[in-house]
Amino acid sequence: MNKKILTSISLISFLIVSTLISSCQKDPKYGEVEIYIDRAMFETTPEFYYNGSPLQHSSYGDIWVFEANVNEKEASIDYAFYFEDSYFSSIEGIGLPVILEAPEDGDVVTNTNSYELRPTGDLNEPFMVFDITPDDGGGDCFIGTWAQNISSCNASGAEKVFHFNSDGTGYVGNVIIQGYDDNCVILCNVKFYCTWEDLGGGSIQLNYTDVWNDCGQNPNPPSSSDILNITCNGSSLDISGQTYTKK
C-alpha cells in the first residue's frame, strides 16, 4: 500500500472521528432562575417577562417568587412596575432589562439560582440584585425563605416566615390573626427587617432595623437583638427548636 493511499485513509479516519465527536456535542442546558420581590416595595403588582412571556409567581405573605426556565447563561429579564410615582418598563424602553445568571448542569438540570430584586428608581440600574443562592460546598445553608404554618389558623398565608439574604440582611414575617381553624382570618401582616451575623457554632444574631405592616399601624422595631440556633436539614430548617420549610 503506497503512501498516498495511507494518507487518504488517515484523512478519512480523522474526518469520521471528528464528525462523531461533533455529533456527540450538545447545547448546554440551563436551570431555573427565581426572582424574589417584596411586594411592599412596589406601588402596584410588578410584572416580569422572559422572551416576551410573563413569569408565573407564588406568594408567601408579602414575598412573591417569580420563576423562569431559561435557555441561556445570562438571562435578560424584562419588567413593568410603578415605584415612587414613576413607571418603569424595559419592554417599553423605560429602563434596561435586568440580567440574571442561570445555573448550568449538563444534560439534567436540577439547579436553581435565586435572586432578590429591590427597585432603585434608576433607569440604568433598575434593581439592586442580591444573590440568595447558597454556595456549593459550604455556603450558609439557611440562606433563603423559610415558613412555618400557624397550626391554629387555616387562613391562606397564616405563617411565620424567616428570610435570610446572603448579604447579611433579612426579615422576620408574622401575622396577627382572629379566630381559630376554618374561622380564622388574618387581620394584619407584620415584617421586621433585620441584619444577621453568624456567631459560629450554629448560632446567628438578628439585629432589627425597621418594621412594616399593612394594617395602618406604626410600630417600632424590636429594641433588642435575637440569637437563633440554626440546624439545616435539606428542605427544612430548625430555628431554635421550631421546624420551618424552605419556600
What does this structure look like?
- With 247 residues, the chain is mainly beta.
- It has one helix spanning 3-24, and strands at residues 32-38, 47-50, 53-54, 56-60, 63-69, 74-83, 86-89, 98-101, 112-119, 127-131, 144-149, 159-164, 169-178, 185-200, 203-213, 226-233, 236-239, 242-246.
- The strands form 3 sheets. The chain has an 8-stranded antiparallel barrel with strand order 11-12-13-14-15-16-17-18. It has a 5-stranded mixed β-sheet with strand order 4-5-1-9-10, with no helix packed on it.
- The longest helix has 22 residues, at 3-24.
- The model is unreliable at 3-9 and 14-25 (pLDDT under 50).
Largest sheet: 8 strands, antiparallel, barrel
Helix content: under 10%
Write down the overall mean pLDDT.
Answer: 82
Beta-strand percentage?
A: over 45%
By secondary-structure content and strand pairing, the structural class works out as mainly beta
N- to C-terminal separation? 70 Å
